Amino acid sequence: MIGTIFNTAMIFCGSLLGTLFKKGMASKYHDILMQGLGRLRSSLWA
């Protein structure tokens, strides 16, 4: 169980870092990332 929580936390942190440093990211991929983060947030805190 701890591994699952750790993995989820690392994916979330990596996504946030990617969002902060998105200068080289195309708009299309940025939109996909934002949708994914929104769904992740909804599933974790719903």
UniProtKB/TrEMBL annotation:
It comes from Ligilactobacillus ruminis DSM 20403 = NBRC 102161. It comes from the Bacteria. Pfam families: DUF554 (PF04474). This is DUF554 domain-containing protein.
